[in-house]
Each structure stands twice: as structure tokens, then as C-alpha cells.
Sequence to fold (106 residues):
Amino acid sequence: MIWKISIDNPIFCTIVQLVQACHAVGEASRSYPSPKGIIPNLVVIGVDNEQKLIKTKNKLDTLGIKTEIFIEPDIGGQYTALCTEPVSGLTRRIFRNYKLLKQNGG
Fold:
């Protein structure tokens, strides 16, 4: 599974970003359970803002990758994180141009 986090909100430190990613994972795990006995790898990548998060979701949807987006009610219903269904093999290449999440954003 790949998790994307919008990191434009100044209140989001890395820890809060990871919490948002976990929310998205929880949402996605209900919709896209992993095959029995397989634990997917967790990769957290960042995007610069909410608009890019939505653009990424639309791109993944177009490519046929199922996604769940998390909306944070505590900050006005902003989209804060995105999780994909488990991906493997060559499908993972879709994400190679995204930045890994680092401390202090992006």
C-alpha cells in the first residue's frame, strides 16, 4: 500500500502527518484487505499540498489503482492523506517519482 499525505498545512509536523496516514490506512484496510498471510510494506510519501493530493488521487483512479482519501474533520474537512490498495510488482513504479516523507515535511 502507498500512503500520500498533504503537507502544506503548517500545523502538520511529521508525527501528525504519520497519524493522518494511519487514518487513511484504517479506511483503506476495510475496503482493500491484503490476501491472507501477506503483510504489505508501508511506504509514506509526501505531496506539497491538498490540491496535489487530490490530483494524485485522480491520477491513480485513472490508472485503475483503488484509493481511499482521508478527510480530517478537525481542520475544516481538509483532505489530509491518501492510501492505495496493496500494490506490487511493476505497479509500484507508478510511485517512483514521488518524494519519500521526511522529517519537517516533504
Summary: The chain is about 30% helix and 25% strand. The domain at 2-100 is CATH 3.40.1490.10 (Bit1).
